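Quick entry between incubations.
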Amino acid sequence: MIESFLTWLGNTDWSIRLLESFWVWPLVESTHTLSIAFFVGLAMMMDLRLMGLTFGKIRVSDFTGPSLQLVRIGFAITTITGIVIFYSNPLRYWHNIFFRFKLLLLVLAGLNIWFFHGRIHKKVAEWDLDTPPPSAARWAGAVSFASWSFIVIAGRLIAYNWFDCDIMQFHEHGPEGLLGAFHAFVYEGAGCPTFLAE
Ligand code: HEM
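Done. Structure below.
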């Protein structure tokens, strides 16, 4: 089902034009990277404050108040450009283990944001200048910092085709032992059997 939809999507005129474009694709990718630097950079500053590692003299609300709007704008631009890049080659990205890992991490980062703003940040006035902040806030900062770090690493690794299905198939009966197990995990995790069966 999803295979045939992504195959159809990748064969649409605009998807082919985008992938073959000389300037548009690189500009969209550059905007994706620039907006990441902007919002992930700001988010990580906030996480360091929440973890009580730095900026201890600045109220948490002075951090979260003004910068939250900017983070939201950066996140929106990153998500839109990410979806446009995905549209340029949907089947390849859908079967890319790093892309799948990144989507899982985006869900984790989203749940952490929802829990932090829905629960912990509601009472920020009670712990605004506490050093260190309460453990729930420190944990939220740590989970956020870790998830954005791994999202950026996974995003960067998408471009490398080492684990793409059409490469992996030549190693189907790959190495033994732990490496073999990792190989099999990636092969299954990227949905290669389905992709190669098509
Ligand atoms: C919102 C948080 C996101 C962050 C922090 C993020 C981070 C990154 C990073 C660091 C890269 C590597 C850029 C480079 O190589 O210069 C990347 C690439 C990519 N991202 Fe995202 N991304 C996000 C959201 C998305 C979304 C929502 C999608 C699509 C649904 C997406 C699709 C992609 C794709 C397809 C690439 C690979 C481009 C290539 O072939 O090199 N990203 N992302």
